[in-house]
Amino acid sequence: MDHPENEDIYKGLKVNKGVREVPSVSPYLKKRIKRRDYTPAEFTEGILEGNITILSQAVTLVESAKHEHQQMAQEIIERCLPYAGKSVRIGITGVPGAGKSTSIDSFGMHLIKEGRKLAVLAIDPSSERSKGSILGDKTRMEALSREKNAFIRPSPSAGSLGGVARKTRETIVLCEAAGFDTVFVETVGVGQSETAVHSMVDFFLLIQLAGTGDELQGIKRGIMEMADGIIINKADGDNVDKARLAASQFKNALHLFPPAESGWFPKVLTYSGYYNIGIKQIWDMVAEYVRFTKDNGYFDFKRNEQAKYWMYESINETLKDSFYNNKAVTAILSQTENQVLSNEISSFVAAKRMIDTYLANLSGK
Amino acid sequence: MDHPENEDIYKGLKVNKGVREVPSVSPYLKKRIKRRDYTPAEFTEGILEGNITILSQAVTLVESAKHEHQQMAQEIIERCLPYAGKSVRIGITGVPGAGKSTSIDSFGMHLIKEGRKLAVLAIDPSSERSKGSILGDKTRMEALSREKNAFIRPSPSAGSLGGVARKTRETIVLCEAAGFDTVFVETVGVGQSETAVHSMVDFFLLIQLAGTGDELQGIKRGIMEMADGIIINKADGDNVDKARLAASQFKNALHLFPPAESGWFPKVLTYSGYYNIGIKQIWDMVAEYVRFTKDNGYFDFKRNEQAKYWMYESINETLKDSFYNNKAVTAILSQTENQVLSNEISSFVAAKRMIDTYLANLSGK
């Protein structure tokens, strides 16, 4: 009914049906930006006032692929930066089926009741999200989605992991400037995205299920060692003993890991997202971590390291993009790769050959 | 006595003592290459005949920073490639004090006695190795260093991890062409080098010590999950029970990890490098792994993935080198980094600014 394209199609009898362009950005985006052309200063003002509509529109600019939207987004971010950085950023991961949405709903509601303002963001580079899944996301977090102090935003739509992660990181800045003092960044624990999430949050939370077999199949190797806290879900009813057993197994395993750089020893808790049991303890754990790392200086150290990491990551991503989208390079890439695989040339000679091609092409030779 | 510079200095009374240049490469290298200027074809022929002197000289070319040496090295590698790839490549890591050298000595001697030919290489990007430490390395492996079927070569001297790792990878090719059917790549388990080693070997072996506390301090997080086998050293005398306990703890912990891509479940063994106990079992484990992964196709799959990885890794390293050594970039790098750290500009704007500077400089604008 409120789909903007419908307006074009059913405007009356005089509609001239020509060849219709496929919209390059969401028609919603076009509509919103046309509706009111804010300046970056106005956007920033609205964000600082905590205006959620304006915040959403600014995030849409951050997510847009259009050059002029990106320019505006960067200006807004630059203006918001001095007001950002004051939240506690928590990464949350777990395989599908671990009960992430229910957990975030319960955990988030606990924070809202404590008087906090919560932004829930996500990184999910593989999925192509549409309007539908935005609603889906909100439905997944039933209680939270009705709270005015909660801002739920799904993952930026498809793109490279680097691109999607950058957009989420920039959205954190805007949310913090808008007064959100807690940020969740959710991801599915099956791909490369955990490392990206880990590099933008203060605390990394891994949701697990009781049991030591199939439940772990989906989780990628290496993730357990990134966790500052492991929480075992569905510790309710008949499952309590199993969850406790799992918790003690995880605790033992963590003792075999070398200590984290933060000096923090990861905690293992059991809880039930569905029955709202043990939720307070999760937040207490995060709060204790924040106190602990602020005291020993690791909190600020990590934030600085992350800012640098993202700068260098952006540089590397851009360099790679420039290389792999270069026509002279793409013309010989797969052929060269095959020569490496059939042992005709070494990996290094192959690389050098393509780099030479690239640089010659860049300098117009 | 056979120091080449002595020849210049003490040649007779007519020596003209001018300002002497500091040698940019090892004087040994100069001498060897001068002594007999092999062509790449001759080098390759010598290597294929298993001539260790010629192999050593070729490795020296691989390690040289000189452009003409590099060119020759690449030609030799290209000629050797069809004869390479037939060894079992084993990565070995462990913190200093875990008994790596003694273990490699015992493990290696077992292989020599089985009729195998063993090359022992290393990756150690942080150290600046000199002639002294080559001898040091050989002394560390007392028995092996006397065996004609063992070729021990220390880590290429200082350079970036990427550079050092590439040289080691290329040295593997030459050793394999020379008929070595087993290659050890050793590294100290404290830095970034394990990932590099992991990406050039078939089997990754982690040496641990009994105990669950301080001994682990040095091992980097994430390494345990890369291991195909964990071997607990010093399982001798009073220490046997402690080592067995540690082994069972590691076994339990590994059960909490998700299964490896290879389908192989990592084994945990106890042994004594010093007293030569349990060494055969280590090789049996590796052999079982090789059979298992050759049967399920993972062995070849991984080799191909590694070849591609190194091609793309070389490309990325070269792109980064070109960027970070660009004068226009270095002129603004630290200033821009500071602006990011003080929240003046976003990481992305900083990155974009530097990329623009770089590309403008490249195309001569």
Automatic annotation (TrEMBL), chains A, B:
It comes from Macellibacteroides fermentans. It is an enzyme of class 2 (transferase). This is LAO/AO transport system kinase. InterPro entries: GTPase_ArgK (IPR005129), P-loop_NTPase (IPR027417). The keyword Kinase applies. Its EC number is 2.7.-.-. It holds the Pfam family MeaB. GO terms for cellular component: cytoplasm. It comes from the Bacteria. Belongs to the SIMIBI class G3E GTPase family. ArgK/MeaB subfamily. NCBIfam families: lao, PRK09435.1. One of its GO terms (molecular function) is GTP binding. Signal peptide: none annotated. Keywords: Kinase, Transferase.
